[in-house]
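A quick aside before the break. I want you to see a complete sequence-to-structure record at least once, exactly as it would be stored in a machine-readable document. Don't worry about memorizing anything.
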Amino acid sequence: MIAVEPHDVGSDTEWDGFLTGREDGLFWYSAAYRAVLRDLMPVTEHSLVAREDGRIVGVLPLFALDGPVGRVYNSLPYYGGHGGILAASRDAELALSDAYRKIATATDTVSAAAVSNPFSSQDRSLLPRTHGDDRFSQFTPLDEPDRAAFTARWESRARWSVRKAERAGVVVERDPSALAWLVDEHTRGMISVGAVPKEPRFFELAAKHLPIGDTSEIWVARHEGQPIAAVLIFYFNGIAEYFTPAVDPDMRSLQPLSLLVATAMFDAVARGCRVWNWGGTAPSLHSLFLFKRQWGSDKRTYGYDVFVNDDSVLDRTSAELLAGYPHFFVAPFSALRAE
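That is the input. The structure line, written in tokens, reads:
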């Protein structure tokens, strides 16, 4: 008998234990990352667990935000974090999908969205859906401990860029104190291309719940003693998550990010990580896709499965939805009648 119940954060150790060792047990599901989201946003957590004989056999991370037209659920919110159902059996998956459907179709629910997990075999057809799309995620397997054999998988462009940075005197090291520089440069870089940067508060909370030097690292590239690039990496369940990079645009020609990536990848192999996860790439960012492909990356499909329960939300503008439900996916902007 499978029983679905609200998750009690007091059993987060058991939750993480279920994730550990599964190929699809991503950092985004972890107790620490969910704590960041709870502290960062005015949300309530409604995560679910499926139990069989008292043991967790399935999980669904889920957050809700109350806004101008009602309640919105996301699995997960905040820049499209991967969520959805992870289950050890078909019965557990069916039980969790039934519980999620009841939440998504409740009278006070405006919409519910699940961002699927590219490493999971979850059956997305079980989730209620009125809108959605498919995207792709890139990752590099870290299953080759021999450095020469590992780098041979890279495209020649990646190897050339690493050598150029080394010849230019770029030096890479771990440095927790470089977090402030990373946040500032990330903010400037995102604004310069018309994108919304992650707020400084996020990085403060990440450092609190995912301590630098333990479950995260700040890698920094310096030239003549000055930082010119940095990247934040999270580590969970044998996966290194390439989370936030930043580069001084005036120093980009020295290829510091390439040397950063290579150094951090070698370290991830030494840590025993099995995957370097590049994350999703928007279809419009073709140059970013090519950069990730240089490093011997493969790709997998994932998607947004959105159930709009109250059609009146489609009469709102994108500006209204962004203001009323910050960091939550309410409905595709292409479906809004007011746009």
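Two observations worth writing down. Residues 256-271 form the longest helix (16 residues). The chain has a mean pLDDT of 95. We'll return to this after the break.
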